[in-house]
Amino acid sequence: MFGLKSDWSLELPERYFTLEDYEGGVARWCPGCGDLAVLTAVQKILRDEQQPPEKTVCVSGIGCSSRFPHYMHTYGFHGLHGRALPVACGVKSRRPDLDVWVATGDGDCCSIGAGHWIHATRYNMDMVVMLFDNAVYGLTKKQTSPTSPRGLKTNTHPMGSWLPPLDPLCAMLGFTNVSFVAQTVDWNPVHLHATLREAHKHRGMSFVRILQRCPTYTAAVFEELQRDPSRLLLLKGDDNVAVDPAVMKIFPNQAEHDPSDIGAARALAETGSQGEKVPVGILFRDASRPCYEDFTMQGLGISAEDKLAGLKRELDKFAV
Amino acid sequence: MQAIPVLPQSGAADDAARKLALQEARRFHLGDPKLRSGAEPGSHGLQALGEDPLPALLHPFRDPELVRGCFPAFVPAVPAGPQAGCTSLSSLLAESCPQSARVLTDNLRRAERIARRLCAERGAECDAAEVLRDAGAALREELGLRAEQSEQLAADWTAMCAVIPAGRFVALDAATPLRFMLTAVQVATDARREAFHARIVKLRDGLRELIAVERAKDPASRSAEALRGSMGTAGAALLDPAALASVIGAHRGSKLLDPGRRARLEQAAAALDGYLGRERSAPRLIVLRGSAGPNAVALAAETGVQVVDDAAGVAAAARRFDQEAASCAALFRAVRLAELEIAGRYDPERHDAWLEALDWEGFEKDELHLVPRIAVVERADELVGARLAELIRVLTSGRPVQVIAVVEPGTNPLGATEGALSAFRFELGSLGVGLREVFVQQSTPARMQHLLRGFVQALEGTRAALHVVATGTTEARATSGGPWLRAGAAIESRAHPLFRYDPEAGDTWARRISFDGNPAAIEDWPAEELACRDAEGLERALALRFTFADYALLEPSLRGEFRAVPPHLDGFDGALLPVDEYLALAPADAAGRVPYVWVATRDGQLHRVAVSRRLISACRDRLAWWHTLQELAGLRSDYVREAVDRVRQEADTALRAQRDELQREHEQELARAREEAVAAALDGLARSLLELGPGLSIGAVAAPVRTPAAARPTESAAKVAPAAEVAAAPAPAGEAVAESDAFEEAWIDTPLCTSCNDCRNINPTLFVYDENKQARIADPRAGTYLQLVQAAEKCPARCIHPGLPLNRGEPNLDELMARAAPFNQ
Amino acid sequence: MTGDTGTPVAAPLEAGTAVRLGELIVEIVSDSGEGAQKAGQALGAISAKMGNGVWTVEIIPAEIKPPARSRAGASGIRVRIGSGPMTNMGDEAGLVVALNEQVLYGRIEQRAYRPGTVVLLESKWKDDQQELIRRQYTEAVADFRARGLVVRELPLEEACLGVTSDPRVGKNMFVLGMLCRVCGRALEKAKEEVAFVFGRKGQDVIERNHRLLEAGFHFAEENVPERFEVPPAPRTTDLIVTNGNQAVGLGVMAAGMELVAMYPITPATSASHYLSGAIQKVGGVVHQAEDEIAAIGFAIGASYAGKTACTITSGPGLALKTEFVGLAVMAEVPLVIVVVQRGGPSTGLPTKVEQGDLLASLFGEPGDTPKIVMAASTLEECLLFPVTARRLAEAFRTPVIVLTDANLATGVAPFPRPQVTPDWFAPPVDQSAWDPAVEPFAWDPTTGISPRPIPGQRGGEYVLTGLAHTRRSKVAYDPDSNQRGCEARSAKLRALQSTLRPPEVYGDASGELLIVGWGSTRGAIEEAVDRARAEGLSVSSLHLRFLSPLEPGLGEIFARFAKVMTIEINYSDEPDAPAVTDENRRRAQLATLLRATTLVDIDCWSNVYGQPLQPRQIYAEIGRRLERGGN
Questions:
Q1: How many whole angstroms separate alpha carbon A129 and alpha carbon A111?
Q2: Number of folded domains that form chain B
Q3: Nearest residue of A to residue C246 by CA position?
Q4: B719–A247: do the CB atoms touch at under 8 Å?
């Protein structure tokens, strides 16, 4: 009878990848920089999912964290300040087969690239956007960033920054077609890894704000958060980031949160933006939002004959 | 309309004459050779059957031209909907006729009669549109309406025809099952072929893409000529392609395919292209007509159908299938290769041999369905005669061959050799079911939806199928009524019950057997009322059951099994019994009685007709098989009835037991409540005596009270502290030093490591990364205590715990230990 | 082309005979929204189908809804009909239909007419209820006549009333019928065209417009004494009729591009409008980005991922894209950038003609950013250049700018239908394994060309960067790497130049004066050169399509002429303006470029009135130069 002889389902992946397969040289961030933890977390996720390095593209703008692609042994695009998102969307638009990761900083994303940020959210293309938020311009040596806390003394505001900081989570949760918003901290590798893994699983633009220590310029900003976990609020629940119970114990404050509730998400972000109960975990997730690549990939793989026939029909319309 | 049949005049006769007549009838029934052999009437009133006898129930449908059966049937060119769009002429007209068309609706039956006549004139098959066009014209002529109304009628007729899709009208003849087989093949295959076509195109394009990428690396595609072609006409005028060719140079970078793979891709693309070139002309149905198969001229004219006359019939089917499958295998090889190549997973080492060996047994279900369907059509008596061994071989070989056995339920398959009355004992359908893994259906084109569904179901599966089909057309000498009525009678009389046996439906009888479509499926025989008049002309209604004996009347060679009994035997001594009642009696009760059926002759006269015992045995045989089928289909089961009784009994017992148990528990509960009330009162008393809070029970009084001095574990310790620490019992604060002595070895809280490299920059042999790129201490002797302390101080995650120095000789140990202390907590 | 423009001077007096002309320029001007453009396009199409050469250009007011009866609100269309091919909008019109007298002033200011131009003027204003309007009208008619225009006052709206109840909607078809009669166009062909244009709107609409056509035709028979005839020349090839932006759109598709990323900007947008409705049929998509920067970034992303992409913009958009153009040059990402130039600087004259973006295209980015720049000079080149550009962008791994302008973008004329083959399309994306020994910037020492790994190619993983980098694409701050990288990118232009054919001189290969042009001025320049040469003047012209690298052999060609000058539509100081000296004079852009590269003392003549150059103006300038040269 049919089927008895075939073994087509016995296909095994041709290659097996280890962490080294994703490592692109020694990272040259400052000692103690939080970026290193994110780099490792991403490499681990790719390893866990056995994603071929050549099918992965890391796109970044300019800034300390935008060096990220250089430390990955994948394809990378280290472009212009603020412009990572349009490039990443362009990559995805006609190559849905590629796994796209975007590394962007608080200056890159929330300041010079803020316009693209809003629209990339609206396009909601399937990629992970990691906002490395260290609340300062590091690469250009300590200028105020849009997320710098009020009063932070920088080279552009030596008496302390004047205005309250922009909160990226509040902003994201106000953008049209937002589909995934999460927050994590670089100094908890377990939660960081679990959050990014959830982001990678999500189809659509997964935005993860990573509170990231800059030991050189803003050590004080994060030290308090790191030392006093009661400042954080761990979001938990069936549909939230699942971490080991031992890790959960580190967080004295925990709250059940249903990520499908955007109203609750906004309330959490708002409280967090006041510096209290900074939420970590998934604030919002809606997999049903439309993805722009479903539209931009139309006609992919059309044959040359069909192309020619289509073109001839177009020319016919202009024939005399 | 046929005249309403008339009941016989109950003749006046004395009891003696009646006795004699009864005796004669009994003798006939029991098989008195003298009475059987002579065609002449008996001496005491037993008579021949009269002119053109029919079972009474069939009398109103004596004239085939006036029977509104489902033939001619409409078969659309492109099957649509769950019924494939096949329908009777009557329903076709009724469903398509515009509601508002008054004259047309009033004359729709007239139109139908005209169309039937036209179909009959045009033979087995005719184009539906043409017939309808001519019928419309004929109808208008026949009605002779005023011009205006006639035009309206023409317009309505055209509107009606417009909603009828292209198709053919098909008469019921021996080739009709093949026509429906083609429709079923269309239903089961067309969508698959289209999907397959799309898949092939996609794969072909995918291969072409790979080949195009490869060609772009060829020196030829970097030649002046190729560049001229690719730059557009303006580019070729402004640039010198030869110069450009030398500038661009040879291909670099991406690797060339190895020549073997490129050749494979090109061959596969060519194979797929070849298929796309010839798929339209490839047959989808190949009919092998055995030596006794029906004529199938009309079918042979259809596209995608090949009719082959092959005397070897069923024996040739397997050969033919293997041939077709072999040529499909070449294509499927290319498809599989293309799929693997496009995914970049083809490994010649592994896959070459598999592809080489691919034959029909390795086909996937969808692939198997793309092999042209092989249908063999043959008379059943031929199949169970000389070809029986071949039939069984084909059916059990696993090849999905459709065998259509055309059967006459009354006489064949064994009629030719065994005589009419033994023939029915051989059940071809039962034989098929006995082969277990073969799809079997027993059906008839007279129930076209049943037949079609069976065909489609068989074609959707992947097994050999045996279709035992009664067409009503092959009886030796046709009586009145026409094939549709005869085939229908075979169903009604249980001569040819409808059933399907599908091994793919499950592995129990109930799942495998389908019994739908049978009339009065839970009864022994279907009941029907017959309107008639008595001798005085008053309208009466006879409640009749249609039995196998009625069906036997349609078979001329069985006429000898019937004799009309004189009217005066009616009611005498309870001696005459309708066959169905007779069969229901216990043998002892039946003794001495004569079973009869009602027969109508051409002149509309009804007669009671005595039935021979031999025929009654045949009836019993049919009924027993019917009961078996009912049971297999789950309609009746003695097991079930017994089981139900047993379960009911058990349930009653259990219920009673439960009730008793509940009662007992209730009583115990009451007793306990009383005891507890007493205990609670005592407890309250004790509590107030000992001055305890209300939250503690008496039992808790003895437990040690928790002290606030109990060690508060650090964050990290709570999570992944070494076993030693976790196990350490809480100790009084004064013993803290002794406790830290307990883990003097340095360790790292690895899951908290953020991979920052700081420790590894201090000493990469002391600190190493694990497979998750998180730090652990490889060998505490590989570095100094100073390095451990420095690393702990530097670590942003504060997850390095230096412990106590291993080498007590290291300088400045006191200071270092003091620095280490905060990281050891 | 004949030397005579054949512009009619006055009507023949004998009724029934027509004046035979080599060409005729017709205008219809009105307030916007009166359907003048539809009537003119139909007239052009009818003429093209009759075998005439045609150039059609729309007259567009800058505002979307300008006030009625205003000079700035002149809206309409110019149709130049000739026996041979027409390559530009020509000089002054010979015949104009004006639906009010004020809009005619708008055109007179733009030097569209001359004495003898026949004006068919709507006369209803003569009896308008407002005194002001009646006076304006009467004064204007007198003024027109004083300027030498031949004015025919016609009650057009009233005549329409006989056929339609709403003449405001139907008048344009009435005018078309009238023009068919006056210009010798076949009424049957007009009916076919109308049926084609209104085909979707149903038989009723077609029939109503047919009635209007016929009424206009008969009205002209009785009321307009002029009749002209422009006999068609036989044609041998299949033709298509498009404007320059549609041609660009067709070219983008003919190049097999899969992605067009754009942001709305005049006058480039209509190319994207056309593509948005057509490109799906050839497997592509148009992305309307959130801004000009994102548009090019999106296209670069797609191109980096191996898909051919382009972006289409105009001057202000190009300014915004500069940063990404620099990145594409630095990181060697193939990309086609179509720039439909408009008036500048800044937002300038959005709807008007200028060739002001040449130097910005070449040198707009900080640092050294060698890239390929091409300029289309005809509608046909608008279609064909994207195909060439795509191929060169990939071959040389660099952005290619294709310049067109508002003149080409809005001009409509027939040209040969391209014989597209699948070889024009980009090949599929290479996903085969990459040889890791070949670096992502393995620059060929001579040509600077390097092979490009594409995401998905195993073994080719690299990080593209806009920072100075090594052949391995590793960020490098050492002086040597930067020098090597710049050399390699520069070498690509040299290599490309070595493959370019030397440009052909139009006219004699040597002589008194050589006019050098680029872009859309070609038709007008060559027409003027023809006219001057017919009069015995020693003038030739040269038209450049490649501006970066420049076409080879220019110095040698220039040496054969006594004088070399460029004619361009961008700003230059008048040589005799106050305080202008040879040293401080700012010259036109191509002149500046050519002087710098060839060290030849190249003069220029240019202006920025926002109008296409007329052959007559160029002809006049040739005359002046040769006179001056004679001095």
A1: 16
A2: 5
A3: A318
A4: yes
Verify whether the Cβ–Cβ distance C384 to B232 is below 8 Å.
yes
> Ramachandran region of residue B313, left (φ > 0), alpha (ψ -120 to 50) or beta?
left
Q: Residue A73: inside a domain, yes or no?
A: yes
Within a domain: C434: no
Please tell me the distance from the alpha carbon of residue C589 to that of residue C544, in angstroms, as a whole number: 13
pTM for the predicted model, two decimal places = 0.81
- B705 pLDDT more than 80: no
Q: Indicate if B77 and B194 belong to the same structural domain.
A: no
Is C449 within 8 Å of B247 when comparing Cβ atoms?
yes
Looking at C376, C404, C424, which one is the last position of a domain?
A: C424
Element (H, E) at C273: helix C269-278
Do C117 and C64 sit in the same domain of this protein? yes
Measured at the alpha carbon of residue C228, what is the angle toward residues C222 and C234, in degrees to the nearest 5? 135
Give the pLDDT score at B716. Answer: 45
Give the closest-approach CA distance of B400 to chain A in angstroms.
Answer: 10
Contact yes or no for A54 and C457 at CB 8 A:
yes
Q: Do B240 and C501 touch (CB under 8 A)?
A: yes
Residue C451 is assigned to a structural domain of this protein: no
CB contact under 8 A, B252 and C438: yes
Q: Which of C390, C424, C458 is the last residue of a domain?
A: C424
Per-residue pLDDT of A74-113, as tens digits, reads 999 999 999 999 999 999 999 999 999 999 999 999 999 9
Q: Mark whether B53 and B126 lie in a shared domain.
A: no
For residue B284, what are the domain limits? 178-225+257-471
**pLDDT (tens digit, 9 = 90+) per residue, B130-172?**
999 999 999 999 888 888 888 889 999 999 999 999 999 998 8
pLDDT greater than 70 at residue B775: yes
- Round to whole Å and give the CA distance between C306 and B469: 62
Contacts of B360 in chain A (CB under 8 A): 2
The 10s digit of each residue's pLDDT in C533-580 is 999 999 999 999 999 999 999 999 999 999 999 999 999 999 999 999
C520 lies in the same domain as C576: yes
List of chain B residues whose C-beta atoms are within 8 Å of the C-beta of residue C500: 238-240
- Find out whether A287 and A203 touch, Cβ atoms under 8 Å: yes
For chain B, the chains sharing at least 3 beta-carbon pairs closer than 8 angstroms are A, C
Nearest-neighbour CA in chain C from A70: distance (Å): 6
Chain B residue numbers touching A39 (CB-CB < 8 A): 755
pLDDT given for residue B39 in this prediction:
53
Interstrand relation of B73-76 and B87-88 (parallel, antiparallel or unpaired) = antiparallel
Confirm whether B731 is domain-assigned: no
A113 shares contact with chain C (CB less than 8 Å): no
Write out the E strands in B348-507: 373-379, 401-407, 439-443, 465-470, 499-501
Verify whether the Cβ–Cβ distance B772 to A44 is below 8 Å. yes
Residues C413 and C279 in one domain: yes
| pLDDT digit string, tens, across residues A30-52 | 888 999 999 999 999 999 999 99
Q: Which CATH number do you get for residue C549?
A: 3.40.50.920
B289 and B362 inside one domain: yes
User: Out of B719, B757, B771, whose CB is closest to A19?
Assistant: B771
The number of folded domains in chain A is 1
One domain, residues B202 and B315: yes
DSSP letters, B768-824, are: EE-TTS-EEES-GGGS-HHHHHHHHHH-TT--EE--S-S-TTSTTHHHHHHHHHHHH
**Cβ separation of B248 and C449 shorter than 8 Å?**
yes
Write out the residue range of the structural domain in which residue C407 sits.
Answer: 241-424
Q: Could you tell me if C163 and C268 lie in one domain?
A: no
> Tokens 């083809």 label which residue?
B346
**Among all residues of chain B, which has the CA nearest to that of C256?**
B230
Q: Are residues C247 and C196 in the same domain?
A: no
Q: State the smallest CA–CA distance between residue A169 and chain B in angstroms.
A: 24
- Residue C254 maps to a domain: yes
Assigned token pair, A29 = 């961030």
CB contact, 8 Å: A311 with chain C? yes
Using the beta-carbon criterion (under 8 Å), do A40 and B774 form an inter-chain contact? yes
